[in-house]
Each structure stands twice: as C-alpha cells, then as structure tokens.
Design brief:
Helices cover about 40% and strands about 15% of the residues. It has about 650 residues and is α+β, with helices and mostly antiparallel strands. α5 crosses α6 and α17 packs across α18. The longest helix is centred in the middle third of the chain and has 28 residues.
C-alpha cells in the first residue's frame, strides 16, 4: 500500500520549517561578537546544553557534562545560560519577522517555526504564468537530488517555496544576525524531517516522490515527530521498532492496543501523512519557569527553589500585561528507571485579591504565592517521609486581559469624581433610606403571615421612602465606583446596560436544614439591622435565619450570634423597574413553605414562584458548609472562583478579609 501520493491529497500546501542553528550559542554571539569564531558552550548547571559549530569541530556535543566538554576542548568558553530571558526575546523577534512575510506562523519551542506559505506561492505562480516565464530555479538542496519536473505544478510550487524560504533566512541574518536551516515540503511533518538534512545554515526541498525514502531512512520510531517517548515504548512491546515495522503492523491489532484515534494517527505519520494546519501561536498561553538539580530533599529547599523562580516569572507576566488566573506546580521525583519522564503536577485558581496585585505589587504577591505553591507541593509529596526531587516548575496560565476603563467605554464615564463635602453625605443618606424602605416591606410581609407584629412607619420614614424611589443607581452596587451625577445624565438604555454590567452573580446554596434553596421573583426588599420589623420580634432567641432573596437564587444562612433578619437587593434584578414600583407592597405568592431555625421560634414563609419562575435546587452539598457562614465578599472577588479554591485557601482568605 503505497502512500507516496499523500502530499497531493494535502490540497497542494507548501509549508516551511525554520530551525535556527545552535540557537542559545548564536544569541550569545550576537550579544558579544567577540565570541564568534571561538569554541563556545552555553552552560546550565553542570551541563553544556548547546555549543557553536567551532566547539563541535573539537568534539564538544550538546548535553555533554561540563567536565567532559572541558576535557575534550580545554579552550572552550562557557557562558551561563540559566537566565532564558535573552533567548526568549530573540525567539519572539524571529517569529515577528516571519509574520511580516506571512500571518500563518506557528512557534515550536524557542528555535523552530512552521510557516504556511501556500497563498504566497499561489500568487507568485500566477505571476509566473502570466509573465510567460517557464524557468524557475530551486534554492538550496533537493532531497535525494531528485530531478524537478516543471510540468508538475506541485514541483513548481515547492521550488517557489524554496525561494521564499531563502528570503526568510536572508532576512533573519541581515536583521537579527542569526542563521538557520529550512525544510520545504507539503506538510508540517515532512518539512520538519527534511529541514535537518543539510546543516548548518542550509535548506532542503522535498518532492512528493521522495517522501517514503525520507520516512524509511529514520533509524528509530521515536524520530517521527508526534511519536513521543511513552508511545514508542508501548510500540516496542508490540515489536515495532522502525517506521517500516509500523507501516506493516496490522491496523486492527494496533487499534486494540492503543485505541482507534492514536493508532490511526501514528500509522498516518509513518506514511508521511499530516493534515494538521499551521496554527498562528499568538501571545503565550502560559508563563512557566523550571529548575532542575541533582537533589532536593527538604521542604526548606523546595521553598527556596520556588522563591528563586517567582521574581523573573512575575516580571514576564507584568511585561505581558495580562492577568493569570491559575497557578501550577510540577515536580519530578528521582527514578533510576524513568529518569526524565516521571513528572507530576497540581494546580489551583489564584485568589482574586492576589490577581489584582499582579504587576502593580509583585513583591507583595510572592509570599502568598509561595504559601499556595507549598500547599500544592504537600498534596503531591508527604514531607514527613524521605523524598528526592530533581526538578521544580512553576506555571501561570488561564491568562485574561485586564479589565480596562479606557475613554469610550461606559466605565470610564462612571468613574467616581472626587466627592464634595455634600455629595458624600448624600450617598450616606440615600443608603440609610434604602435600608429603611426594605425594613418596612418586611414588616408588612411578616405581618401577613401572622408571625410578627406590625409596626407602622412614621411619617418621616414614609417621606424618606418616596425619596428613595428616585435613586439614580443602587448604592449597594459598589457606590465608590459610580458618579451619580454622570449616571443621571445617561440615556435609559445605557443606564440599564451599566446596571446589568455591575450586577454580580449571587451564589445559590442550601438552607440550614439541608433543603434546597429557592429562587425568588421580581419583588425586591432590603432590611437593615438598624430597622424595625423582624429584629424586634421578642419571640426570636438564640439562632436566627439570614435570608437573601434574588431572581435566580436565594440563600438561607444560619448565624449563631445574631437576631437580625435581612434581605439584600439582588443585583441581577436591578435591571428592571422594580426600584420604582410600590416598594412597600408585599410580594404575592402562590404557596409557601416553612423554614425553622433550630431553637428559634421565628417562622419565615419562603415564597414559591409561578411556573415561569420556578425555584431550582442546587446539588452543591460539598460546598454547603463553607457557604453557610454568611460570607460578605469584597467587591473584586468572584464568589464562583472563591468556592473553587481549596478549603484551606478559603479559610485563609476569610481571615484576611475579617
């Protein structure tokens, strides 16, 4: 079953793989030109991670120990390469340069890039045909010295691709001082395999007819990109050691051993088939840094290693401008049998109050981040028993743009202006009034259920309620961030949009008896601890119920040392007109259910809604305990994220907020 025509099925794509020569060493030579033409090695710990070609001529190899390298080449100059910053920066410069030619550039590590130049090739081919020119010259080598057939349009496309690849390499050398190899083929797999045929600073084009020769010349199955260490080990147990073995192996048996998707994928790779697209990398999806060592065997050492990794990592995050929302710790425990691949990781969300400090107060986040990472470490390693680590890695991921208040956005115009002596007073008065309004409605509601004595509002309080109906913006929604004067000037639709943006998710929870919480409808009430009503119920003693109503959720929370019953304005409900419609009228309910509060004799009627607003149950029993405490979150804290944190981190945050 010959699949040498697989390239023709790839819709005539032309892909270039660019691989920079001895990248770290080249960057050091660009930084210090005096190192050119001298044997140079880049050292990390006790290993020479790479060296230039002058050193290679004298017997130095990549990943050789410093001791052996010095014995081979006493005149070897070693540069410390443990700080990856200059290599990372140069790597992105190369990618940006390639993106000037073509937008389809995919990074692969620091020193490799795939470029899909199919569109550029098509344009040049059309120009060539229109000009009537019948001659094109290949740049660089042709794999296997295969003859080019100019009557074959795929051959012509690849030849044009070789010219473009040469332009890439010339631009890199002229503008960045770097040399590299390039492979030109019809897919990513083949372009990567052929790019290293001639080194250094050369390029090779692969014609479709030579595809099988290239693949079968690989001496080990692991040399096929996409077949990693673990997969190759599993294949070896099946007797598959070469590409030819894999091609000849029965598909049904392979699918049974590895699963259908993996088996089909690697058999396609063995024939040189790869239809994966070149995906533009864009900004980094994560920031990580790691440190490897011979031995780390105490918590103190682990903490020191983490503290060493964080500053440069936080600096990279700061320069990027986005905020990470997840942190991950990876460790590698020593193993005599599985030296390089015995890794384990744990991750967790970053607490919201720390996210806000990224970039601005990086020094202030190191200590709490170390604490979080140490907790992740203890989940993987029992520190009471002997352990032997050889690697630690810290990674920040789930990067999100910082919410901005640029001119042109509504948030910009609603920024609180410096308050005058009068405006601050006005805000305070309005807050008190809105609380009084809610307490009145609760008095009336509880009176209708026959469980609380009715207390009439004074004329003064009634007049305050009328004022409260004209509130410009609900003050309990971050009053410090809204300028009421500006808000009043906005059109009605903009006001509604602002209020909907400012509303926060109210987390539904179970009540104190473990019963499902209920979702309330349109009617909105608020009672303050200072107001009359349920607070004055003399029959209530000991424990009491704290009830929060909202369109979408309701919370019944138990308090051990409080006799107040309060209802807060639900944020999601404030987008309607309920602030202006009869705030003192009680809600109309179809039915009611009774909630008892332990030793308390107070009975509250919990509303049941109409069909279109039926109550819903929450099944978060595992989170109930942590939600019963009546937590009041700071304005910048997302409750959903909070409840995803480990329990010990939640307790730490609560202590900090108190």
């Amino acid at each position: 079953h010959s699949k040498s025509v697989s390239a023709r099925n790839a819709a005539c794509r032309v892909i270039v793989h660019v691989d920079l020569d001895c990248f770290y060493a080249q960057v050091e030579m660009v930084r210090n030109p005096e190192l050119r033409d001298k044997p140079l090695g880049v050292q990390q710990k006790y290993i020479v991670v790479t060296c230039n070609y002058e050193a290679r001529k004298l017997g130095v190899k990549k990943l050789m120990s410093v001791k052996d390298a010095k014995e081979k080449c006493p005149q070897l100059i070693l540069v410390n390469g443990e700080d990856l910053t200059p290599y990372r920066e140069m790597s992105y410069k190369v990618t940006e340069l390639l993106e000037e030619f073509c937008p389809l550039v995919e990074r692969l590590g620091f020193d490799e890039n795939f470029v899909d130049i199919t569109e550029i090739v098509e344009k040049r081919l059309n120009q060539l045909q229109q000009s009537g020119c019948s001659r094109v010259c290949v740049s660089g080598h042709v794999y296997n010295n295969q003859a080019i057939d100019l009557r074959d349009t795929m051959h012509v496309r690849l030849v044009i691709g070789s010219q473009i690849a040469e332009e890439f390499r010339e631009a890199m050398h002229a503008r960045l001082g770097l040399t590299g190899c390039a492979g030109v083929a019809c897919n990513k797999l083949l372009s990567k395999l052929v790019s290293g045929t001639f080194k250094p600073n050369q390029q090779t084009v692969l014609l479709p007819e030579s595809c099988q020769d290239l693949i079968r010349n690989l001496d080990r199955i692991q040399k096929v990109p996409g077949i990693g260490y673990k997969t190759s080990k599993r294949l070896e147990t099946l007797g598959i050691r070469s590409v030819c073995d894999l091609q000849a192996f029965p598909s049904a048996v392979l699918e049974k051993e590895l699963g259908v998707s993996i088996a089909q994928r690697i058999q396609k790779l063995s024939y040189g088939e790869d239809d994966s697209p070149v995906t533009p990398s864009g900004p980094p999806q994560s920031f990580s840094d790691e440190d490897s060592f011979k031995k780390c065997s105490s918590e103190v050492e682990v903490k020191e290693k983490i503290e060493e990794l964080l500053p440069s990592l936080l600096d990279r995050v700061y320069k990027d401008g986005r905020q990470p929302h997840t942190v991950r710790l990876t460790i590698r425990q020593f193993s005599s049998t599985d030296k390089w691949f015995n890794r384990e990781s744990r991750q967790c969300p970053i607490p919201p109050h720390l996210i806000q400090k990224f970039g601005k107060e990086s020094n202030n986040v190191i200590s709490p981040l170390v604490d979080i990472l140490m907790k992740l470490f203890r989940k993987m390693v029992n520190a009471d028993l002997p352990f032997h680590l050889t690697l630690l890695s810290v990674c920040f991921s789930n990067l999100k743009d910082v919410p901005s208040s640029k001119k042109g956005s509504i948030g910009f115009y609603l920024k609180q202006m410096p308050p005058t002596s009068g405006s601050g007073k006005r805000v305070q008065e309005m807050e008190d009034v809105s609380q009084g309004e809610g307490s009145a409605s609760w008095n009336q509601n509880c009176n209708r259920t026959g469980t609380t004595k009715t207390r009439r509002l004074s004329e003064e309080k009634k007049s305050n309620i009328k004022k409260a109906r004209n509130l410009d913006f609900p003050f309990h929604l971050s009053p410090g961030s809204i300028d009421q004067e500006v808000f009043r000037e906005l059109p009605e639709d903009i006001k509604k949009e602002v209020m909907s943006e400012k509303t926060a998710e109210v987390i539904s929870t179970e009540n104190v008896l473990g019963q499902p919480s209920l979702c309330f409808a349109e009617d909105i009430y608020s009672a303050s601890p200072h107001s009359k009503g349920l607070n004055s119920n003399k029959h209530s003693a000991g424990d009491s119920i704290h009830l929060t109503s909202a369109r979408g959720s309701a919370m019944v929370q138990k308090h051990s040392s409080s006799t107040s019953c309060s209802v807060e304005y639900p944020r999601s409900a404030l987008t309607g007109n309920s602030m202006e419609e009869n705030p003192t009228d009680p809600p109309k309910f179809r039915d009611s259910s009774v909630v008892k509060a332990g030793a308390s004799q107070t009975v509250l009627r919990v509303p049941v809604l109409d069909k279109d607003e039926q109550a819903f149950e929450t099944n978060s029993k595992d989170k109930t305990c942590s939600r019963k405490a009546g937590i009041v979150f700071p304005p910048n804290v997302d409750p959903k994220t909070f409840y995803e944190l480990p329990r010990d981190v939640q307790e730490e945050l609560l202590a900090e907020w108190k």
